[in-house]
Design a protein that fits this description.
Length: about 130
């Protein structure tokens, strides 16, 4: 079963709601907005991942695999927008779970590494990129 960012976001939101951790309507609205943005970007994100231009990091963000790829302004904007939204989601979830955004990002990164497709790049904690086999 393939797990898209949309499915991952839906699962996180559903788990939080089921656990009664969603603290306010504002948080739910923020997560809904974030989810919609993740859904809109997902096809393009997936395309760049399949081209080997971006990959997942242990910080729960995406990065360009090679610095030269950032010459593509569309790619740079995609990375910046995706990471800004991920960080915002991590803050929301951390607030709801009474933890830190770093802990939420770490959990998400582990999940993203597990769900990555063969051939996609993953950045190890030591900063080296490896293709998932």
């Amino acid at each position: 079963m393939k797990l898209s960012i949309t499915n991952l976001m839906s699962a996180i939101v559903a788990a939080l709601l089921a656990a009664g951790l969603a603290s306010s309507a504002a948080s739910a609205a923020d997560k809904t907005e974030l989810q919609a943005r993740f859904e809109r970007r997902y096809p393009q994100l997936l395309e760049y991942k399949s081209q080997g231009k971006i990959g997942e990091t242990t910080e729960g963000t995406v990065e360009a695999v090679e610095p030269g790829y950032l010459d593509d302004q569309t790619l740079k904007n995609l990375i910046d927008e995706e990471n800004a939204d991920r960080r915002e989601l991590y803050r929301i979830i951390a607030r709801e779970e009474n933890t830190t955004p770093a802990k939420v990002a770490e959990r998400t990164a582990r999940r993203n590494f597990q769900k990555a497709r063969p051939g996609e790049y993953l950045k190890a904690a030591d900063g080296t990129w490896r293709k998932k086999t």
